[in-house]
Amino acid sequence: MQNAIASEQGTQAADALESVDCPLCGPGPGAETRQVMPPFRIVRCRQCTLTFVSPRLTEPAIMRLYQGAAYFGSTVAGQGYDEYMDLRPNWHRTFRRRLRQISPYQPRGRVLDVGCGPGFFLEVAAEAGYEVWGVDPSEFAIKLARERFGDRVQQGTLTDLASTAARFDVIVAFDTFEHIYRPLEFLDNIWSLLNPGGILAITTPDPTSTLARLSGRRWVSFKLPEHVFYWSEAPLRRALRGRFEMLSLTRAGQYATVGFLMRRLLGLGRSDSGPLGFVLQGLNRLNVYADNGSLTLVARRLDERSTRL
Question: How far apart are CA 113 and CA 125, in angstroms?
Answer without folding.
Answer: 10
